[in-house]
């Protein structure tokens, strides 16, 4: 690894600089890794915009939870997607009203397809985000406990009557 700036402007050098920057190394640490002095790296950043851009902090990427939440919201509300398709085109040539030649060729095109909202995704979202309002059997637990108390009370009364 030389100290020449040419290497650091090459695709391989820029990738390495991006990697170090993405790992959270500061300019002094990157200069040390690159085998140059920090003031040399600063001068290169001023002189070469591509190098400065490679060392610019990257925008934070959403984590898996945020990506899944966004995908679930999209699925629950519906979305439109571009789909690449191949079409067969037929071209016919006429001379004096008579068919002379016929050509078939394939052409690429893009269709916009609407993916409708998914009811299961909507139910999942509502049950998890607003359980008080959207649980399947509201107060089912309370009803079960009341029935259990009544059954125990009846059993207790039956036992007391038998023992008397």
If you had to describe this structure to a student in words, what would you say it looks like?
- This protein is α+β, with helices and mostly antiparallel strands.
- The chain has helices spanning 5-9, 11-22, 27-34, 38-47, 49-55, 64-77, 119-129, 131-134, 140-163; strands spanning 79-95, 98-115.
- It contains 9 helices and 2 strands, in the order H-H-H-H-H-H-E-E-H-H-H.
- The chain has a two-stranded antiparallel sheet.
- The termini are far apart.
What would the average pLDDT be, to the nearest integer?
Answer: 84
How many beta strands in the DSSP annotation?
2
Rounded to an integer in angstroms, the radius of gyration calculated over CA atoms is 35 Å
Helix-strand topology string: HHHHHHEEHHH
Major β-sheet strand ordering: 1-2
Largest sheet: 2 strands, antiparallel
Low-confidence runs: none
**Assembly form of the protein:** single chain
Quote the distance from N terminus to C terminus: 99 Å
Taken from the alpha-carbon principal axes, the silhouette is: flat
Our count of helices gives: 9
Helix- and strand-based class? alpha+beta
Helix content: 55-70%
- Estimate what percentage of residues fall within beta strands: 15-25%
